[in-house]
What we know:
By secondary structure, the chain is mainly alpha-helical. About 70% of the residues lie in helices and about 0% in strands.
Amino acid sequence: MVAIPTPVTPTDPSRGMTQKTTLIGWMRRHPVISYFVIAYGLSWAVWIPMALVGARIHEGQAWPTLVPGLVGPLAAAFIMSAVVAGPTGVRGLVRRMGQWRVASTWYLVALSPLAFYAVGAVIQGISGRGWPDLAQMGTYSGLPVVALPAMLFLLVLSAYPEETGWRGFAAQDMLKTRSLLWTSVVVGLLWALWHVPSFFVVDSYRQMGLAIVPEFTLGIVAGSILLTWLYRASGGSVLLIALWHGCYNLVSGTAAAHGLPAAVVTTAVMVWAVIIVVAEIRREHRCG
């Protein structure tokens, strides 16, 4: 009996290309979902191992730090810009990151957290409860103690990667078909969820426990409303909202961010967000 050789099916080189094309096609059809998957994956790949080995981040301690994980939103924004629109998309993102030609009014808005903090500091001082120690603004979790101007610069740099992703890509894409409020809330909730691993490594979060989660989420969503509104009003300037974010970190995330001044900043952001919500609902009602 003669054995019949089994035919060998040649490997189809186009099969891998088809699968790759299918994945790219899905990512183009669902750019925001794809963006968040990549951003979470890159950031959590840094932060979850830190949590598992028991790393703790303290104010004024340069290492360990969350900063490497901040690359996640930035890298995801560039990846998805390239996937969706190729070199044109990447150039558009870079342009938004460096867009500084905006009305001076919006720069004042970007610096508003500093003004809110100043109001709170004055109220605390004249009420006899003591003046805040501004030198403590140089003490921030995961960044070294430095002079205040340099500290603000570092905080803007830490805010830049986040805002390039949350507003520069995610909100930018969603605003094409969704309202400002819908975009702000969805991005805000996913932005808050992105922070989850940090609750296991940042010492100040660990001390407050799970009780801080609702307050933290509400604050993030309020900030998202304000930042998305500012992003749209400024014509899509990532630079401007990174400046706001950096100023806010300076007066809310440093060792000086305690007591009445910090409470005034937080309250002002909440009130501002409510005003934006009311204004947007009225505007949508008139347009509808």
